[in-house]
Amino acid sequence: MSGLAKTSDANEVIATLRAMASSDNVAGMARFGIVTETALGVSNTDLRALGRKIDRDHERALALWDSGIREARLLAAFTEEPQRMTVDQARRWAADCNSWELVDAVNEPIMRAGHGPVLIAEFAADEREFVRRMAFSMICWGAVHQKTLADEDVIAWLAFVEARSRDPRNFVRKAVNWALRQIGKRNRACHAAARTLAEELAESADKTARWIGKDALRELESEAVYKRLARRD
């Protein structure tokens, strides 16, 4: 890693990643649901450190992504220049995602690029498991990080939560649940709206919706969340 710099190209970065490879780490990753066919076994902690070292570069990020290597794709997400990410690129990267961890890394540059208003609805309607997960991962990022977004815009995302609350696929239902909880923790107005939906889902005849609602309520009604909301008053 020491030889890399902001001027390093994709080939140099990939060579460094290969030198950092660990077969033991690859075996461990599989236990967490990470797709390992192209994995080198470099930890996310090391990838984040490497990303800070090489900084952001759009063209290099595109080349890293196109390599298909797990670590290179994560680095592409960490080092993309959001202002240069087009909506078509965002769609392509979302379609390429084959694991939850890639989805949850790519959500940030897509949201920072300003594509949320177009792509959240589009991705939530998409039948592909990881593309649909992307919609709710983006909602989570927006609920936490887009501080200036109007409450009504955040609360409007609950319509997508309700619409996809019956999708039983593991990586979708977990992301829908996550989105419901993150919206509810934003502030009191969002909490009230999210709690109302969670209560409705908890009474659903559909077992997936019922799990999402009950699990969300456990956190939204916790003392820790109420204390956090009080600090934001």
Topology, element by element:
Elements: H1 10-19, H2 23-30, H3 44-54, H4 58-66, H5 70-79, H6 87-96, H7 100-112, H8 116-125, H9 129-145, H10 151-156, H11 158-163, H12 170-184, H13 188-202, H14 207-220, H15 223-231
Helix pairs in contact: 1-4, 3-5, 4-5, 5-7, 7-9, 8-9, 9-12, 12-13, 12-14, 13-14
What does this structure look like?
This protein has 233 residues and is mostly helical. 70% of the residues lie in helices and 0% in strands. The longest helix has 17 residues, at 129-145. It has two domains: 1-80, no CATH class; 86-233, Leucine-rich Repeat Variant. Helix 9 (129-145) runs parallel beside helix 12 and helix 12 packs across helix 13 (188-202). The chain is globular, with a radius of gyration of 19 Å. The N and C termini lie far apart (45 Å).
Brief write-up:
The protein is mainly alpha-helical and 233 residues long. The chain has 15 helices and no strands.
Along the chain, the helix and strand elements come as HHHHHHHHHHHHHHH
Low-confidence stretches: none
How many separate domains make up the residues?
2
Name the CATH architecture of the largest domain.
Answer: Alpha Horseshoe
Radius of gyration: 19 Å
Approximately how much beta-strand content do the residues carry?
A: under 5%
